[in-house]
Amino acid sequence: MLYLTEPEELSSLWPDEPSYRADQIRKWLYQSPVLEPADMTNLPGDLRDGLDLWPFAIETEQVADSGRTVKWLMRAPDGASIEAVLMGYPRRTTLCISSQAGCAMACTFCATGQFGFERHLQAGEIVAQVAYAAAYLARNGLGTSPPRVTNVVFMGMGEPLANYANVKTAIDRFTGLMGMSARSITVSTVGVAPAIRKLAEEPWRVSLAVSLHAADDELRTSLVPLNKRYPLEDVIGATEYFVQRTGRRASIEWTLIAGTNDTLEQADKLAAIARRLRAHINVIALNPTPLTSDQPPSRAATTAFLSRLTGAGANVTLRDTRGQDIDAACGQLRARSLTIGT
Ligand code: SF4
């Protein structure tokens, strides 16, 4: 499980090898990842044979959207599950990664939230998701999309800002060893206000996505229990600080749920927040899970909600629900495998 070793400590693993050996292995791990040690062609065969790369086994791999979406359910040796989803677009290939196994935030509409918290992922487990996807792309490609991970979004299982130290180390490795641009990395949070402020102080300028889902405290507390601790005004204030300090724009994420947050009143309040933050709004229809009765909105309700936002001067994108046939929303593959035992 070499991805769990600190990159600078790799050389101590092979004291009898020449000093350049650890550099060769580091390059394979972080610059040109491969699925199997056998593909590390410049290493001696006996050394390759003894290498163990991944800190997880691939429990399921599902392909959807005519080959443009691949979802993995990965299993760590202690049983913790990790989900990652690769999505191909014409000019980018985005990997959605997990920062925790499970999640303690208990958002009512989210499959991961229903299962509660298992544990934080180590930095190496977070980095290994990106390395695995990069190795998969190098071998298989993804249709006509770029055959490399161009964007990383922390929108899989877990609240990344609740696992700050490991997420920070992972981003250090993405932007350092792996040569990714910080702009192509999006940290998505449900509103851990003090950690948003901390993120603004980091040397790299990642993108920030704030999942609001409701535009007043009463509704938001009913959907996102963390709102009791960090009410909307705290989250908005921290986001304003992030934007001001980093010069980056923030986006607002909004999972649209029938009869709950798809009203015109919510749209008006959301538009006002977006104007204040000069934030783009990404709306995504709920991907229903087997564990709650929440449903996605009708087409008419979605259209009315979006029109109200654009009429109020907000910038909005309706995101496609990628991989619906493979349960590709946050935590859903795991939910399905636990529910029906696949
Ligand atoms: S929506 Fe995100 S923060 Fe909320 S429970 Fe699910 S994984 Fe956790």
- What gross morphology would you assign? elongated
Number of domains: 2
Tally of individual helices: 11
**Widest sheet: strand order?**
1-2-3-4-7-8-9-10-11-12
**Fraction of residues in helix:** 25-40%
| N-to-C SSE string, H for helix and E for strand | HHEEEEEHEHEHEHEHHEHEHEH
Task: Outline the structure in words.
The chain has two domains: 31 residues, no CATH class; 287 residues, Aldolase class I (TIM Barrel, Alpha-Beta Barrel), CATH 3.20.20.70. It has 342 residues and is an alpha/beta fold. Strand 1 and strand 2 form a beta hairpin. The strands form two sheets. A ten-stranded mixed sheet has the order 1-2-3-4-7-8-9-10-11-12. Strands 5-6 form a two-stranded antiparallel ribbon. It is built from eleven helices and twelve strands. The structure holds iron/sulfur cluster (SF4). The site of iron/sulfur cluster (SF4) has 13 residues, from helix 3.
Short description:
The protein is α/β, with parallel strands linked by helices.
Layout: helices, strands, pairs:
Elements: H1 20-30, H2 45-49, E1 57-64, E2 69-75, E3 81-88, E4 93-96, E5 100-102, H3 111-115, E6 117-120, H4 123-140, E7 151-154, H5 164-175, E8 185-189, H6 193-200, E9 207-211, H7 217-223, H8 232-246, E10 250-256, H9 264-277, E11 280-285, H10 299-311, E12 316-318, H11 332-340
Parallel strand pairs: 4-7, 7-8, 8-9, 9-10, 10-11, 11-12
Antiparallel strand pairs: 1-2, 2-3, 3-4, 5-6
Helix pairs in contact: 4-5, 6-8, 9-10
The protein binds iron/sulfur cluster (SF4).
